[in-house]
Amino acid sequence: MHRLLQLLNSNRGAGHRLVRAADGESATLYVYDAIGEAYGVDPQAFVRDLQGVAAGTIHLRINSPGGDVFGARAMKTALEQHPARVVAHVDGLAASAASFLMLAADEIAIASGAFVMIHEPWSLALGTAEDLRGSADLLDKVGLAIAADYVRRTGKPQDEVLALMKAETWFEAEEAIAAGLADRKAEAPAIGNAFDLAAYRNPPAALAHRPPDTFAAAAAEHGRYAARLALYERAA
Description:
The protein has helices at about 5-10, 45-50, 70-80, 95-100, 130-155, 160-165, 175-180, 215-220, 225-235; strands at about 15-20, 25-30, 55-65, 85-95, 105-110, 115-120, 170, 185-190.
């Protein structure tokens, strides 16, 4: 099975959550799943929810193995166009398309023990040799577009960023901050890994085994998440 399908199918889950603070001053969007309409976080539903947020601050909480890069692009664009200040929190994992999504934030905080991963884009292709060459050309363009966003965020030269993507580079919290992919450490420790990362070439040993974590279990692990989840369920 192709690695992209493996990643999405093995991490199929419940999607995202929107929690509005009782005072109306902030809202929290949880991206705690793979990104893709059929697999977890539906980009269209995410954008619709975002359009209904009138708060001055949006907290984007991320624990995601990645997914559909074009879906992530649509989500990122919607966040960038929203008038609110966006603060991204890498609670556990921001890999692949999720590491690209977090760049929409004005500020990025990463939990101790959390990881960010960047890599070259993947795709599925079927057809003639000419079709496959066209798919490869498209992947090159997508990769350069993603690299440009990492370059703007980090200030690193394009060649260095492309090399990091090619190597499938995993950054722990301190490394992400040093690389310019995050601004500061978060106060809370990272939540446990909830994803099957076998599709990737070299995930860190700390993330190699997938425990039976769910969104609810992660929320129960941290009191503030549990409180926000309760607010969401009362509003549903």
